[in-house]
Amino acid sequence: MGVLSSVYNCFNTPKRQEVLLSKIASIETNTKATRLKNLCPTRWIQRHELVLIFLELQNAVTISLETISSWQDKTTCSTALQLLSAIQNVEFQISLRTTAKIFGITSPLSRLLQTENLDLSTAMILATNIEEMLIKMRNDSEKEFNYIFNDVQKICSDWDVDVKIPRKVGRQVHRSNIETDSPEVYFRVSIFIPFLDFFITQIQRRLLDHKQILSSFHCLLPSKINNLEFKKQFETDIVHLVRRYEKIVNCSEEQSIGELRLWWNYVSQMNDNLKNAHSALLVCDEKIFPIIRKLLVILVTLPVTTATPERTFSTLRRLKTYLRNTTGESRLNGLGMLNIHRNIEISTDAVLDELSKSSRRINIKL
């Protein structure tokens, strides 16, 4: 990612961007992209786009760097040569294509995790499917990596770069020192498989470790169960939830089981299909089902990602500018609510009436 960010910074000037545009036009490609993307520290989906767009424009980027390296400016020439050497490195090409292959699978999950009103159940289903695909790729790593290695060999032959194993020594600390004479085996074992294992582990740790909690919440959503018959397992699930969220629910196990049975009977007589926790929460009466409603609120508000706090910080950054640095807390909260709830219409007359109530040096004449 550091190389990609450096390449973006290199072409982030009008003169160098013009060189890149001319090379893209001269090369017959099907891509519609004309600019590289920057590395975003928060939006993961933009990292996916960064890798995929760079892979499409790689030939134009290398030709542009070769052109820039012949310029008279020493700093620009040196930077272009360094980036060209980094891009034409075999390990970088293997890592780039490995990342692009896996990001192509996980990009739908990244887009989903950036959406609003996302519940844990929806994210868990997609994460489970992605985990199964990655595990299948891991088990069939020889075949999957062979496609990547063939692409790297082809592009390296165009650059007159030899695909070979790095120098091996008796004691290696900073990189893998695998005992093999095959470059394909070396890069598969040292780059492809470790990256896959790391990605699978992160999906399991960040999302799928909550599978037990989610499976217990399924007792609140009859539409998630194929057979709409109340089972003994659902009583165990509701008891598990009550024990886990004891301070919030504050009820006995017998009360929760009885209310769950009544909730199932109530839902079975409805024509609407409760597809998710949001739809169930809308029809759950707090006076009739206080325990079920509290548990549904917990399910809906379980944090899946940091996307919502990130949007809050972005809103605050737009509101609390340098000129508004001394804004009071009540006014800042009001501006924030106006920015968030844009569907609420604001009456100008009501605002003027409110302002006229406070004393001021110059009276407002209405």
TrEMBL record:
Keywords assigned: Kinase, Transferase
Single GO MF annotation: kinase activity
Pfam families documented for this protein: Dimer_Tnp_hAT (PF05699)
Membrane spanning residue stretches: none
InterPro entries in the cross-refs: HATC_C_dom (IPR008906), IFN-induced_PKR_regulator (IPR052958), RNaseH-like_sf (IPR012337)
Signal peptide feature range: none
Domain HAT C-terminal dimerisation: 284-344
UniProt keyword Kinase present: yes
Domain of life: Eukaryota
Keyword Kinase applies: yes
Designated name of the protein: Repressor of the inhibitor of the protein kinase
Organism this protein belongs to: Schizaphis graminum
Biological classification of the source: Eukaryota, Metazoa, Ecdysozoa, Arthropoda, Hexapoda
Gene for this chain: PRKRIR_13
